[in-house]
Amino acid sequence: MDKIFRRTLFIPIKEYLILSFILYLSLIARFYKINNPIADWHSFRQADTASVTRFFLNEGVNPLVPIYHDVSTTQSGIFNPNGYRFVEFPIFNIFHLYFYKIIPSLGFDIVGRLTSIISSLVSTFLIFLICKKMFNNKIALMASALYAFLPYNIYFTRVTLPEPLATTFALSAIWFFILYLENNSLINLFISAISFSISLLIKPYVLFFGVPMFYLAYVKYSLKDLIKAKEFYFWLSIVLLPFIFWRIWMLKFPEGIPFWKWTFNGDGIRFRPSFWRWIFGERLTSMILGYWGLIPFVFGIISVKKKQLFSQMFLLGALIYVCIFATANVRHDYYQTIIVPTIVITTAVGLVEFWNLKNYSKLLTRVLVIFTLIIMIMTSFVQIKEFYKINRPEIVEAGQRADKLLPKDALVIAPYNGDTAFLYQTKRRGWPVVDRPIDDLIEKGAMYFVSVDLNHYQTLEFAKRFKIIESATSYIIIDLTAEK
């Protein structure tokens, strides 16, 4: 461990060029369909995130009271007329807004994606630095390349979601914590604490990044010394207090707090056979590692060096995370975004160990490593490419027409099975579902009904009763304030 902490930050020119090339190609890969409207995979979650930024843009920035477009009872079970949105502290939205004001010509949605892309590039660089310190140059380059080019990670680090930014700050916390352990600089400890605090405010799930940090501190100081160390409590207070205060503040706005208890084990799936199948079979093995990547991943786990269990401890933290938040990780594949760093680090260790095997044919071994990388990326891409598709382009067309025809302050019903992506396209507040009698919604302020399901019984019923503003082959806009 002492040897690790004595390594320098010097990056030889050759490594610098390779890393620069990785970052450049990583950027290019994430530009694929960057101009997609927010109507691709997990559009509902992206729409909710982007909506907060849009309200910051139109109504001013108030990070303590974030609001968005959904006023329904869908998220919290309570009518939310003000559109409160209390999930993550809106740090991602502040970055999104700042970048948009710098380059508004790119478009609001594209800049939202670009915010995540920039985060992913920083994360790639941080993974390189961390692995260079903890392992060696080859593992550092391999891990950063895997993070840059895994199809799963390419997609989920170019979406308008806070996870990529939370991951960046969490990795930054680890990096500066390593520097603190190396030189005992309180500045590095402070930066680590601030970074980890920000990442927790964005996504509390990144708490598992604390496991490898605790391990490194334990190896250097021992548990007894850690308990006595004032610096440890200084770090811990900076990390946790802002998060605690934010959570207490949120309680003032219960209508803006979405249901969250289901994320733990809401459907009782934890440790059932289907849990292992979905997490380790479908997500890890198939979607992220493309089947073939599982071999070096497992090899990376068992490649234990004396007093060097960093990657294993990082992986342990990820395992704790997916087990605690079992239902969320099974239901939604984007929940695994934050565990990708530990997956790529472990896989990189395994690949480099394979590459350096001495008891087998060097040529065949290295050909197999290259073949494994190619097949794992191709196999994963076959699945991930479907995520880029816009399955219902008509919601974009209908939303644009509604935006042109309807008053800016109108409350709109844009039913899409509770998915807010359609409502987001209208740029209006309202309901993503008709969850009660239409007269009740009108009483609560609903003024217009926009639908892309022309044969749905509700659409047919409302079209008979209320005035039709515009009707096309793919959508209909109805005035709920004017009965026929």
From TrEMBL:
Gene Ontology terms describing biological process: lipopolysaccharide biosynthetic process
Transmembrane parts of this sequence: 16-32, 110-130, 139-158, 193-217, 232-251, 284-304, 310-330, 337-357, 363-382
Pfam families according to UniProt: PMT_2
Compartments where found: Cell membrane
GO cellular component: plasma membrane
Entry keyword set: Cell membrane, Glycosyltransferase, Membrane, Transferase, Transmembrane, Transmembrane helix
GO terms for MF: pentosyltransferase activity
Residue ranges annotated for the Glycosyltransferase RgtA/B/C/D-like domain, each copy included: 110-249
Keyword Transmembrane: yes
Membrane topology qualifier: Multi-pass membrane protein
InterPro entries reported for this sequence: LipidA_mod_glycosyltrf_83, RgtA/B/C-like
Protein name: Glycosyltransferase RgtA/B/C/D-like domain-containing protein
Species per Swiss-Prot/TrEMBL record: Candidatus Woesebacteria bacterium RIFCSPHIGHO2_02_FULL_39_13
Organism placement in taxonomy: Bacteria, Candidatus Woeseibacteriota
